[in-house]
Amino acid sequence: MDFIGAYAPSHLTFLLEGFLVTLEVAFLSIVFSFAISIIVGTLRYAKIPVISRVLAVIVELVRNLPLLLIIFFTYFALPEVGLKLEKFYAAILALVIFESAMLSEIVRSGLNSVDKGQLEAARSSGLTYSQTLWHIVLPQALRRMVPPIVSQFISLLKDTSLAVVIALPELMNHAQILNGRNVNYVIPTFLIVAVMYFVVNYALSVFSKRLENKHV
């Protein structure tokens, strides 16, 4: 093991550059998947004929596919039908597809957890169904969704490492490149990579707990 060589400034900078790509992919994937999941989860909760059933089939299909397969599909299969994406965008698209399905179930469950009596009371007071969802049901549901949603975001951040299979220049890809230069870098490199993932994920966990305690 060569800790001194592995932790040379140029190597640490190289790993940080990869980690920045990891965070960028994770952030964009979180933003888009959360927005889509709110829409999909709400539409399924509303039980709109045909639409909710179609969405249910799509969600169940995606949830039961491995993320790795979806990454391969977005990068290798889509070009066959005329849609070629760069590695960065292919990874984001795959993560958004997968995480939207997972998060939409959390959203739907959160909405279902709100007492139906509140919905009926809001409707009887003159609010429309959409107004009731937006102003009464969704705010309460979101507070209950915080822990599982943040947990899913943590999983998403860790799942970005799967993009190494398409050579996305993220953290794991850069770690592999360093390890390929010198076998004595393997353990030191993976240790610092583990620390980087842990710091961000632990921060998200603490943030989630504080939000949960704030709304208790």
TrEMBL record:
Molecular functions per Gene Ontology: transmembrane transporter activity
GO terms classed as biological process: amino acid transport
Membrane-topology annotation of the record: Multi-pass membrane protein
Cellular compartments annotated: Cell membrane
Domain ABC transmembrane type-1: 19-208
Cellular component terms per the entry's GO annotation: ATP-binding cassette (ABC) transporter complex
InterPro entries: AA_ABC_transptr_permease_3TM (IPR010065), ArtM/GltK/GlnP/TcyL/YhdX-like (IPR043429), MetI-like (IPR000515), MetI-like_sf (IPR035906)
Keywords, in A-Z order: Amino-acid transport, Cell membrane, Membrane, Transmembrane, Transmembrane helix, Transport
Domain of life per record: Bacteria
Chief location category: membrane
Ranges annotated as spanning the membrane: 20-43, 55-76, 88-107, 183-204
PANTHER family given in the database record: INNER MEMBRANE AMINO-ACID ABC TRANSPORTER PERMEASE PROTEIN YHDY (PTHR30614:SF41), MEMBRANE COMPONENT OF AMINO ACID ABC TRANSPORTER (PTHR30614)
Family: Belongs to the binding-protein-dependent transport system permease family.
NCBIfam families, A to Z: HEQRo_perm_3TM
Protein's name according to its UniProt entry: Amino acid ABC transporter permease
